[in-house]
Design a protein that fits this description.
The complex is a heterodimer of chains A (282) and B (277). Chain A is built from nine helices and no strands. With 282 residues, chain A is mostly helical. Chain A folds into two domains: 47 residues; 220 residues, no CATH class. Chain A is globular, with a radius of gyration of 24 Å. Chain B is α/β, with parallel strands linked by helices and 277 residues long. Chain B has nine helices and ten strands. In chain B, the strands form two sheets. A six-stranded mixed beta sheet of chain B has the order 6-7-8-3-9-10, sandwiched between helices. The chains are: A mainly alpha (282), B alpha/beta (277). At the A-B interface, helix 4 and helix 5 of A face helix 2 and helix 3 of B.
Chain lengths: 282, 277
């Protein structure tokens, strides 16, 4: 402790540097720990697949049980998009183009992001809580003492289920969103069906669908890895489990949005490399 | 050599050996220079007050925790030099009964007990069912528990299911972490009897971590007592008693007799002195 205002300032700066250094060290250690966790998951994934009886319950829980909630939210998102956009489009007398814009947004962006968000909320936090509870109650230690590798037994099946089933969930979100938007636009707002469908068909192509599905694979992988990592590194007690579940969702959601942006830019780049004549958005 | 606890032959061959083992978590040193030998067929009780490192020692022996310094040898092989695959291969030679049993919540009792058999053997479902039933009978549980989930069982039943699960692959070494903690005296005695019966029926070497002197006296041939490092002077050995279970009452060290008689007065005075009150 130094005397005078200069001394206090020096102390404050020294404390700030020390705190910043500690945070930086923590972040670096966490990144290293996540990297090791991901590498071990991939090593087991490439080495030996889990048994069918381990995979099936995870596929059912993660894929089948997520379908209704994804379908429901997809439908409402489609309808909400129509409600929000209709007035602006009608003012410009281009309401028949609504189908093109909404379906494009759904297939490229909202479908995959919505499916991933629902998966992170419904499945990711539950996975983190379940694995966290297993960590706290020594069930993961029990697995190890019984000669089973917890990454192989607990993480790989969840990772595979998220990775392989998120495209189906995305297709469901896309389909229900498109159907919801069509229903609202054509039957409730009286937009001409022929032009609505014709514009949708003309503007939305196979590549747009591919973009959405391709992105969803990264989202699924990120959700599973983040949730399992959080569960495996859960702090002791009920509070630790709660924190792990919350962190799993929040971190997954942030990573989904960051990945969405980066993949969106990369895939647009690929699109214009393959089809340089295509009209540019900007 | 014949075991005092169960009149069973104990070989002079060492199956587990620890040499100068230190375990440190961050800035917290839990074990210091632990040297330990366990003969084949022997039952060792590790006693000591809460927080002295008993469970850490047990988890280090099976490779759940890695020593910061020193080595753990199993059957003459250094666990620290084994690959993950080799270590897993060695672990199935152990059975581990956890303090809270650590049964898998998502599985039934039958699935819990049959887990190792499904993972490590090519036995048919029918054979596994038979072994599971035999193990359940061995620990004195009725057949109707097999379809139940762990949450539906009492503490004593969970411990017995945990024991049946640990015995499923007929391990060579059994590790018990506080097997009687949280149980009433009768159920504690049931568990003690099961530990002794297990030793009679299977040729196992056992380590029992406990702070229940009744358990230590009843099941063990040999007892070691660990002392918390925070209360030791620098350079003092952490194992303050290592000898036959039946002679622990004659231990020269007053800290041992204080512990086994459950005398709290001196400990309270020491705590007050440390806290400055």
């Amino acid at each position: 402790m130094r005397g005078g205002p200069v001394g206090a300032m020096v102390d404050w700066v020294a404390d700030w540097i020390s705190d910043f250094g500690a945070v930086l060290l923590d972040w670096t250690a966490s990144l290293g720990s996540i990297a090791i966790f991901v590498m071990r998951t991939f090593r087991w994934l490439l080495g030996r697949l889990p048994k069918k009886e381990t995979l099936t319950p995870n596929f059912y829980e993660i894929g089948v049980l997520s379908l209704p909630v994804v379908a429901l939210t997809g439908t409402f998102i489609g309808m909400v998009l129509v409600v929000q956009s209709y007035v602006q489009f009608r003012n410009m007398n281009i309401e028949a183009k609504l189908g093109a814009v909404i379906n494009m947004s759904l297939v490229r962006e909202l479908g995959p992001v919505l499916a991933a968000t629902m998966l992170a909320g419904r499945v990711g936090s539950a996975m983190a809580a379940e694995l966290g509870t297993m960590r706290v109650t020594e069930q993961i230690d029990a697995l190890i003492t019984m000669g089973a590798n917890p990454i192989h037994y607990l993480v790989v099946p969840r990772f595979l289920a998220c990775l392989l089933l998120i495209p189906s969930l995305t297709i469901m979100a896309d389909f229900m969103g498109v159907a919801g938007a069509f229903f609202y636009a054509v039957y409730l707002l009286d937009i001409d069906m022929y032009h609505y469908l014709e514009n949708s068909r003309h503007f939305v192509g196979g590549f747009d669908l591919f973009v959405g599905l391709f992105k969803s694979l990264f989202f699924g992988a990120a959700i599973a890895l983040i949730a399992c990592y959080r569960g495996f590194n859960c702090e002791p007690g009920a509070e630790g489990v709660g924190k792990a579940a919350t962190a799993a969702f929040v971190h997954s959601f942030v990573v989904i949005l960051v990945l969405d942006l980066l993949l969106g830019i990369a895939l647009d780049g690929i699109y214009y490399t393959i089809w340089p004549e295509a009209p540019k958005l900007l | 050599m014949v075991s005092a606890a169960s009149n069973i032959d104990v070989s002079n061959e060492s199956i587990i050996k620890m040499e100068g083992v230190d375990v440190v978590f961050g800035r917290n040193r839990v074990l210091r220079r632990i040297d330990l030998n366990l003969a084949q067929g022997e039952t060792l009780a590790i006693i000591g007050e809460s927080g002295c490192g008993k469970t850490v020692l047990l988890k280090t022996i099976i490779g759940l925790l890695h020593p910061t310094r020193g080595s753990v040898y199993f059957d003459g092989r250094d666990l620290g030099r084994m690959s993950e695959k080799e270590l897993n291969g060695q672990r199935i030679r152990f059975g581990f009964l956890f303090q809270q049993a650590a049964l898998f919540d998502s599985m039934t009792v039958a699935q819990n007990i049959g887990f190792s058999l499904r993972q490590h053997t090519n036995k048919r479902a029918e054979e596994i069912r038979e072994i599971v039933s035999a193990r359940v009978a061995e620990v004195g549980l009725p057949e109707n528990v097999l379809g139940k989930k762990p949450a539906e069982l009492s503490g004593g039943m969970r411990k017995r299911v945990g024991l049946a699960r640990a015995l499923a692959l007929e391990p060579e070494i059994m590790l018990y972490d506080e097997p009687t903690t949280g149980l009433d005296p009768i159920m504690s005695d049931v568990i003690n009897e099961l530990i002794i019966n297990t030793r009679r029926q299977h040729p196992v070497t056992s380590i029992v971590v406990t702070h229940d002197m009744r358990t230590a006296r009843k099941v063990a041939d040999r007892v070691i007592m660990l002392f918390p490092l925070s209360r030791l002077k620098s350079g003092e050995p952490q194992i303050i008693y290592d000898g036959p279970a039946e002679r622990i009452d004659d231990a020269a060290d007053s800290r041992v007799s204080q512990f086994i008689r459950g005398e709290a007065r001196e400990r309270l005075m020491e705590m007050r002195r440390i806290n400055g009150r």
